[in-house]
Design goal:
Elements lengths: L5 E2 L6 E2 L16 H6 L12 E13 L12 E13 L16 H16 L2 E5 L4 H10 L4 E4 L5 H15 L5 E10 L2 E6 L5
Helix pairs in contact: 2-4
Length: about 200
């Protein structure tokens, strides 16, 4: 089949290679077996909605007031945060970010400013509990304290992170999901599609 002209199912033009038309097509193969295996799709690269993910790490302490286990004590975790956003790649050859949904460095700047810098090496305490006094005392002794108005579980933190990150994203970019890993075996996940 090499070099043989084939009819592109997308443009109805003859092409010598599977991807020589303006749209990226599934492999063009005349065998019935291959035609049955391939999905019947045609993808225009710049019209596709693409999901990208960036990962972050930070060290944070917290205490869960009223909890009936060891986590009622001040302790810490090495958190891993995955941030997934989606959008269409920029389709402008003159744009410095051509082909990108969002520059990874722009996403990194948002997440660092909103999450990593405030939370890293801080102790997160709920100020709506007696932990307010603990926060005051620790802060007076020079500790980095982050006061929140919720119980600082992974579930509540990832919800807080979703609000903060969404507010900073460009209008054409959508936050798809966050995964906040507290330990190697435990994580909380926020998914936009489940928030309705």
């Amino acid at each position: 089949m090499r070099g043989k002209k084939r009819l592109c199912k997308c443009t109805k033009e003859k092409n010598s290679a599977p991807f020589s038309c303006k749209k990226l097509c599934p492999l063009q193969d005349n065998s019935k077996k291959m035609r049955n295996l391939l999905p019947k799709i045609c993808i225009n690269a710049m019209d596709s909605i693409i999901r990208i993910t960036k990962e972050f790490t930070f060290e944070t302490g917290h205490a869960l007031h009223g909890y009936d286990g060891l986590c009622k004590n001040v302790h810490g975790h090495s958190y891993k945060l995955s941030v997934s956003v989606k959008g269409r790649p920029i389709n402008d050859p003159n744009h410095v970010k051509n082909g990108m949904v969002i520059d990874f460095s722009d996403l990194k700047k948002i997440v660092k400013e909103e999450i990593v810098v405030p939370f890293d090496h801080a102790t997160v305490l709920n100020i709506n509990t007696p932990h307010k006094e603990l926060a005051d005392e620790m802060e007076q002794r020079g500790h980095k304290i982050l006061r929140v108005n919720y119980q600082p579980t992974s579930e509540m933190m990832v919800t807080d992170f979703a609000k903060k990150i969404s507010a900073r994203l460009p209008k054409n970019i959508v936050l798809v999901g966050l995964k906040l890993r507290e330990t190697e075996t435990s994580f909380a996940e926020w998914l936009a599609e489940e928030q309705h």
